[in-house]
Each structure stands twice: as C-alpha cells, then as structure tokens.
Amino acid sequence: MLTLQARAKLNLTLEVLGKRPDGCHETASIMQTLELADTVTVEPCDSLIVTCSAPDLDNESNLVWKAADLLRRECGVPTGARISIEKHIPESAGLGGGSSDAATAMVGLNTLWGLGLSPDQLRVLAAELGSDVPFLVEGGTAIALGRGERIRSLPTAPLPWFVFAFPGSTRRDKTAFMYESITEENYTRGGLTRKLEARIRSKGDIPAQFLFNAFDTVAREVEPDVGRCWSDMYAAGAREIHVAGSGPTVYAAVERKEIATAVHLVMERIKGWPSIISRAWPDVGPG
Fold first, then answer.
1. Active site residue 58
2. Which of 38, 132, 216, 225 does the annotation list as catalytic?
C-alpha cells in the first residue's frame, strides 16, 4: 500500500494570451504547489475501485478513476487497484484538487503496477485529463504554457504566506464558464509571467506585486460572492489579493505568518468565510 500527498496548486501568474484555433485558450502561468494537500492511498485489487471522503466524488466520474483507467488501458495492465482519497483541498476552488488527486494516483499506480514510466511519459498521458494535471505529476515551481501541457521546471522560489478564503460556486462546468466569460480586454502577452520567471531563475525574492491573474476582474463581475469576499479580505488588512485559478477562491499573499493568521481569523470568525493559511511546497521562504 502506498500513501501519497496530492498537493494543491496556485497560479502565481495566470495570463490568457488569446483563443486558439481549437477553441481552447492559450495561457502562460507560473505554477506552485502548496503544503495544502489531499491524501491518496493506492493498494492492490483485482478490479479498479475509487473511494473518496467527499460523497459526490465517490464514483466513476471522478477524475482519479479516469486517470487510473487511462493508465491501465495505455499500459495493458491486467489487474486493478483500490484508490482512496481523503479530501482537504476544497472542491471546485481553483486550487487543482481533482487534478492533483489524478496526477498523484498516476504516480502511485506507476509504482504499484511496476510500469517504470518516467515523469515525462506520465505527463503526456496526464495532458489528456486536463490542463493542470501534467504539472501536478511532480509539482514544485514551474512555468506552464499552451493549455498548461508544456511544462518547464523552475528553481524553488522564496514565497510569502498565503491566506485563502472560499466563497464557493454552484456553477456546473465552472472553469469552462469562466473562460467563456473572459474577453480580449483581459488578454496579455505573457510578459508578466516571463518577468516572474526571470526573477525566480535569478534567485531573487518574490514580491507579492509580481503576482497576477487574468480572472481577477472577471470573477468579481460574474460571481457576486467573490467581490464580497475580496472586499472583506481587504478590510481584514490584506492588500495583494487575487483569485486562485479561475476562482472562486480569493487569496492574499502576506510576508509573515502572524499577519496571515490574523487575516485568516478575521475572515473566518468575523466575516464568516471558510479560510485557511498555507505555504508553498517545497518552501525556502523565511520563518
């Protein structure tokens, strides 16, 4: 039996460059895994079974089941596995929980089934499952281009603390809806991502002002709770505020744990938003 941590991800930058001929959007992003994680356990079994602590994910529509089935079919594996997921990453939050569970399950099954696939080979398969899944095969810090399938690893960066608050969303196909809502006014040319990439490669510190998300304005326009949560986080003392992924999670980057804890407590106990704090993983930041 193998027990693995499926790390949440955060887009430190997320630029939308335009729409591709295939209808998808071209993006440029610096991605980072977090300490926040689900727990994924894989063990031998004759058939393929996925169980999850979140009841609505405890079925074959779960991306983990699709990932395991894809890996089994592509590699001609004659047996199955039992995969158990203990959720800690909020669902549909823009933090890549489902994608990370799927990527982590593939890594675990690669070992359990003795397939010997390299990370690059796993990423090729992972790209069939979703744009975040290839990055989450290994995580760390990386630049992701295209639809997220072109990954270049970066040095581990010294990053601040992050406070997350979760307005939640009832939209089905939330990510598709958000990309449909974005307009040319929100497009950029990738320069902000290249600027942060250069900063990380030079081993400089990462000021919160370098963070960027193309969905910051869009999410507040189409999801009223995002705007309210954002305002409450500002009132709690945070200044560098963004949405995570395509939302609806709102987060702030702060320099010290004490400040992160104070903002978190105000958001959760006074403002009434579910909230957590987390650091980057792996982390080389101070304190």
1. no
2. 132
Of the candidates 205, 223, 171, the one whose C-alpha atom is nearest the C-alpha of residue 286 is: 205
pTM exceeds 0.90, yes or no: yes
Measure CA of the first residue to CA of the last residue in the chain; give whole Å. 35
Active-site residue 216, yes or no?
no
Tens of each residue's pLDDT in the chain, 287 residues: 999 999 999 999 999 999 999 888 999 999 999 999 999 999 999 999 999 998 776 666 789 999 999 999 999 999 999 999 999 999 889 999 999 999 999 999 999 999 999 999 999 999 999 999 999 999 999 999 998 889 999 999 899 999 999 997 777 788 899 999 999 999 999 999 999 999 999 988 888 999 999 999 999 999 999 999 999 999 999 999 999 999 999 999 999 999 999 999 999 999 999 999 999 999 876 54
In one letter, which amino acid is 173? D
Measured distance CA(139)–CA(131) in Å, rounded: 13
Which two structure tokens, joined as six digits, stand for 8? 């949440």
Cβ within 8 Å of residue 12, ≥6 positions away: 29, 30, 31, 32, 159, 196, 206, 210, 211
